[in-house]
Design brief:
CATH topology of one domain: Alpha-Beta Plaits
Number of helices: 4
Distance between the termini: 105 Å
CATH architecture of one domain: 2-Layer Sandwich
Largest sheet: 2 strands, antiparallel
Strand order of the largest sheet: 1-4
Helix content: 25-40%
Number of strands: 4
Strand content: 5-15%
Shape: elongated
Structural class: alpha+beta
């Protein structure tokens, strides 16, 4: 009991062993794969990254004009790099040795996922209708 009390008093006046995060950045562990960086100007919008992403951290939302908008959630991402490997165009998706910022306000990810699913369904139904126009029978 006496030794515990002495150790406690020593700990009160010694430097803490923990990192003062976020004031001091924590050291990057060896083998860290890093944050995914996206370059929209190079993207061909093939959606392969969305298809191979295991946790669903990448979602494309289709506009009414048929264009696609890229959405990425760094807090859902497991940094596996599958999206980088699947991308057919070099430089669109790159992993950098940075971590996600501690306090970033992201839009509501659940609403982005719902919007992505609904917009994809609308896009595919319009595409299906344009490929298979209904033929009307004429009566004689």
């Amino acid at each position: 009991m006496k030794e515990m009390l002495i150790q406690t008093i020593k700990n009160l006046f010694s430097k803490p062993e923990t990192v003062n995060y976020p004031a001091e950045p924590s050291p990057t562990p060896p083998g860290y794969r890093g944050l995914i960086v996206y370059d929209e100007s190079l993207c061909i919008f093939c959606t392969k990254c969305e298809i191979v992403c295991p946790p669903g951290a990448i979602r494309f939302v289709y506009t009414d004009e048929g264009e696609k908008k890229y959405n990425y959630n760094p807090y859902l991402c497991i940094y596996c790099g599958e999206c980088v490997r699947a991308c057919p165009k070099a430089g669109v998706l790159v992993q950098v040795e940075e971590t996600a910022p501690p306090e970033v306000s992201l839009p509501d990810w659940d609403s982005i996922e719902r919007e992505a699913d609904e917009s994809k369904k609308r896009f595919l139904s319009r595409k299906k209708k344009s490929l298979n126009p209904s033929k009307k029978r004429t009566s004689q």
